[in-house]
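ok posting inputs for the pyridoxal-5'-phosphate job
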Amino acid sequence: MINFKELAAIYKTPLYIYDLDYMTQQYEELKEAFKGRKSLMAYAIKSNSNLSIIKHFASLGSGADCVSIGEVRRAFLAGIPSYKIIFSGVGKSDDEIREAIQKDILYINVESEAELGRVELIAKELKVACRISIRVNPNIDPLTHPYISTGLHDNKFGVEIDTAKRMYIRANNSEHLDPVGIHFHIGSQLTELKPIYESAEIVADMVRSLKNIKIELKFFDIGGGLGIKYKDEVTIKPYDYAQAILGTLKGLDLTVICEPGRFLTANAGYFLTKVLYEKQNGAKRFVVVDGGMNDLLRPSLYNAYHAIEAITKSTTAKSKADVVGPVCESGDFFAKDCLLPSLEHNDLLVIHSAGAYGFGMGSNYNTRGRSAEVALKGGEARLIRKREEFEDLIALEKEFLVD
Ligand SMILES: *Cc1c(COP(=O)(O)O)cnc(C)c1O
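and the output
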């Protein structure tokens, strides 16, 4: 049991808390599911990019899936070896491509024909051959929230199968491109196996047809997206996930690369916030807390559900309340019509499943410093990021202050 009261007393609120032992457990379960095949877990850094978290996964043998050169730099800083680092994303600048090539990472995930051209040109300038993978869009509906769906043609991600084939032929004929992998990532918070399986079939068939024309790939990158339980979702078991994918790879000698984010970090994380006061507007009850949408954006952005637990001495009957933050937006809420007992100043609320896409999506809106972050390992708590102070927020403006 995590002693939230003690953590709040030591580190103050709002506060992010991450259970590293839980992350280890999730990592091991997923890795184990792919045993019998060569596989690499490439942790999706964007889900929680704190250096200590990345370092923790590095210590377990994980690689990294990065979507900006900043994330690539984080991966290196945290000790992930270059040959386990992948660079994905729909829009990479020339500088980002150049640095990724110079750092000799495992491969760049290319998401368009135009990008393939840029990568080729930059590799030529650097007089090297760049390892690439192509992100294929299998046009399968992932059956998840439209904002986190990526595998349909109306999404911006990846290229169609026919385009991909043309790109592989071009890459194979280029002195400066070395096509080594194929990639797909159809969406996030996936709870249905069928779309994953169908996508893997399509992509595996593509690998076979490339093999027939003597283009031999080494890496089959299945992206991330494995869903977790926020409320009452029935999730996919890692074993079933792995079996479904491996079943499509018969006769192919490929290393499977998996890019889990949320699955590893979401339920390892808690966002701890303090009750400022209650207020009643007509029939509506509000609980106002010290954390806001600038700390945890998911409820505002996706109307996402996060379970909320109250730590209070209050024994009153529960009634419905909206849990809202101090930010000047009506969208600044953590829950609507949440059943809570009556709460007092300084009572704590624990917002669950906050380890993924929590702190990382944070901002300084309303000139609010971002929360501190604490990691728990073997029962011990360690501060892994200081709370931002006012001085941190204005540092880049102050010396340029104009009259
Ligand atoms: C976001 C992303 C992931 C991780 O997604 P999760 O749903 O957190 O597992 C993996 N790969 C790519 C390319 C991504 O964009």
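notes: The CA atoms of residues 216 and 288 lie 58 Å apart. The chain has a mean pLDDT of 96.
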